[in-house]
Amino acid sequence: MYPLITTVRGGVTYGDDTNPMTYEYNLSGSLIEQKYPSGRVVKTTLDANGDLSQVQSKKNAAASFATYADSFAYNSTGAIKEMKLGNGKWETFKYNNRQQITEMGLGNSAVDTSLLKLKKLGSGLRKLRI
Fold this sequence. Notes:
This protein is mainly beta. Helix content is about 0%, strand content about 55%.
């Protein structure tokens, strides 16, 4: 059976009236909030260019928002180069000239990949170190 779809505050609601899954969009069509039937809310914040600048979530209406990712940096084509995760670690990405990810890293700063480094070798990503 297909879910019931209705418009809600510039967004879409899936499911029933008791426990809906809702999506909200801003006027430019970017997703800014998701509400799950469990009560969890995921909120995205965009910068002046419309790029993602922060992702936050809370478990229910009584909880406060926790940051899952922020401090996003983008390359000249708009792909994410780095972001700071909610646990304080940094995730980094390198791309080839076709904008395919060639390297992913995890570290304690935007230039550190000491916790995890994955590099594209041949047809897939390979773990170099943990």
